[in-house]
Amino acid sequence: MPTVYKDQLPGFGDDGETVGALEYSLEYISKTSTLRVGILQASDLITPPGSGPIDPYVKVSIQGVPSLGKPKSKKRVKKIIHVTDIQWDTTCPIFNSAFDFNLPYADLKTAILHMVVYDSDEPNQPVLVGGLNVQLYSLPLENYVGKTYEATGYLRKTADFVEQTGQLCVVLTYDPDEAVLSVNVLEAKQLDLPEFYRKHPPETMVSVTLHTGKKKFANKKTHIRSGTLDPYFGETLKFHAVKQKLIVASLTLKVKYRGQVFKNAGKVILGPDALQASGRRQWREMLANPKRPAGMWQILSSPEK
């Protein structure tokens, strides 16, 4: 195997701060048109001073393939993003994870392997550590077609690795004396919409549903906003519920946009059993501090989830 020098590693010398290295593997299986991506380990991860212990994980996706990209039509193409497990309190995590992507052989010449490392930072939102793009056309096919190819690249922290997943800012306040839950829907930003609507911003609104256990308790909606991908709502929706119900309750907030009918642009769930740690935390803060606003930006999950 030929010697690889530091300045030959992917990511070296590119714009952006170098924040560590990522070791990965590739194997293309022609019989099934499968690209198998291994996330092996990272080393010497760097985070801002004072950020504390790092709990890293990696998101992996394929870009640069027309069939996987956003269409110019009004239809949405499902994104395939794989995520490793979180490795706790380490700057040199070992992942040893493998993910399969269905990728036609002809697309290998345009495909870009997109790998992004995050610090899970459970009390808040995940923090970007750095990312690495590998353009497959730069690798000889004989290196990874029908065999496993291992390589290391430098992680960089640039705008290329900032995800446009959509976010919603919401403030919760509970008044136990009045038994009223106030949901202040402030604004949304970076909405992940089909390409047509990025050029022609649609009408948007937010639907808020209160569930108690598995039952739908009440649903309310904001007014419609139009002409922007970063809509400001600034509306407070009130729900009547005693605290005993809120202990087992949850809120589902869906951002919707109007095509021929209203469609989902993403959602977030707030409550004790929410999948996102930030959703659980905001609910706890609301219950623990009656009459005090508990506000947070929440990441919207994709409509497919």
From TrEMBL:
<feature type="domain" description="C2">
    <location>
        <begin position="164"/>
        <end position="298"/>
    </location>
</feature>
<dbReference type="GO" id="GO:0005886">
    <property type="term" value="C:plasma membrane"/>
</dbReference>
<dbReference type="InterPro" id="IPR035892">
    <property type="entry name" value="C2_domain_sf"/>
</dbReference>
<dbReference type="GO" id="GO:0030276">
    <property type="term" value="F:clathrin binding"/>
</dbReference>
<dbReference type="GO" id="GO:0000149">
    <property type="term" value="F:SNARE binding"/>
</dbReference>
<dbReference type="GO" id="GO:0005544">
    <property type="term" value="F:calcium-dependent phospholipid binding"/>
</dbReference>
<dbReference type="GO" id="GO:0031045">
    <property type="term" value="C:dense core granule"/>
</dbReference>
<dbReference type="GO" id="GO:0001786">
    <property type="term" value="F:phosphatidylserine binding"/>
</dbReference>
<feature type="domain" description="C2">
    <location>
        <begin position="14"/>
        <end position="149"/>
    </location>
</feature>
<dbReference type="InterPro" id="IPR000008">
    <property type="entry name" value="C2_dom"/>
</dbReference>
<dbReference type="Pfam" id="PF00168">
    <property type="entry name" value="C2"/>
</dbReference>
<dbReference type="GO" id="GO:0005509">
    <property type="term" value="F:calcium ion binding"/>
</dbReference>
<dbReference type="GO" id="GO:0048488">
    <property type="term" value="P:synaptic vesicle endocytosis"/>
</dbReference>
<protein>
    <recommendedName>
        <fullName>C2 domain-containing protein</fullName>
    </recommendedName>
</protein>
<dbReference type="GO" id="GO:0030424">
    <property type="term" value="C:axon"/>
</dbReference>
<dbReference type="GO" id="GO:0030672">
    <property type="term" value="C:synaptic vesicle membrane"/>
</dbReference>
<dbReference type="GO" id="GO:0048791">
    <property type="term" value="P:calcium ion-regulated exocytosis of neurotransmitter"/>
</dbReference>
